[in-house]
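thread from #wetlab-drylab

HS: before we spend reagent money on co-crystallization trials with S-adenosylmethionine, can we at least see a predicted complex? here's what I'd submit
DV: go for it
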Amino acid sequence: MTNIYEKLLLAPLTDIVCSLPVLSRNRRKVVPGAEGLILEPGIGSGLNLQYYDPQRVRQVIGVDPSGDLVRLARKRAQEVPFPVEILERSAEELPIEDASVDTVVLTFTGCSIPDVTKALSEFRRVLKPGGRLLFCEHGRSHEHRVARFQDLANPVWRSLAGGCHLNRDIESLLRQAGFGLERCDRFYAMARPRFISYMYVGSAIPR
Ligand SMILES: C[S@@+](CC[C@H](N)C(=O)[O-])C[C@H]1O[C@@H](n2cnc3c(N)ncnc32)[C@H](O)[C@@H]1O
């Protein structure tokens, strides 16, 4: 049953959920700021491609292990006026040179990467000095009661939502991986349900 769900439904459902206006509204706060050579780990179905500023983009390299989502992203890549290369693989190990990327764009993906600590250190490795990691992520609430519920619900949520964690403290994970925070706005994207709507939106630079 889980297999059928993952094989047939997970990718289209991910595309539909990630297209919700409440998410688009927030991804648009960071994506247009990306420039130069851009790495987008967990590019998914390519929903961010429409929000890049073509004047500022040299190339986007997307990375995602889901073949079904990569297929959708490759279709969307044909509709933008800049080059897009998509690698079907995990972001924990990247075939990308040290200090070669201008911007890493991470939207709704830090929750899903199994070894997020390793992936963040890869992002730091490939970023140029002075490069930026732009993020728009959901994660652990600052409110104790909500965070407690996130911890309790996490195992069930993960199995239904393609490995998505509810309770990752994105700001702490970035700091631990050697990033300094230029900006990190934290807020609930919706009044209800709070456990899924606590957001971290901002930019980080390698320290
Ligand atoms: C909720 S979706 C978000 C997709 C896209 N970033 C967006 O904003 O619409 C999470 C994405 O993380 C991807 N993902 C999961 N594990 C990953 C890994 N190890 N490396 C890179 N991406 C991964 C999934 O395949 C999925 O595309």
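DV: The chain has a mean pLDDT of 96.
HS: ok that's useful, forwarding to the group
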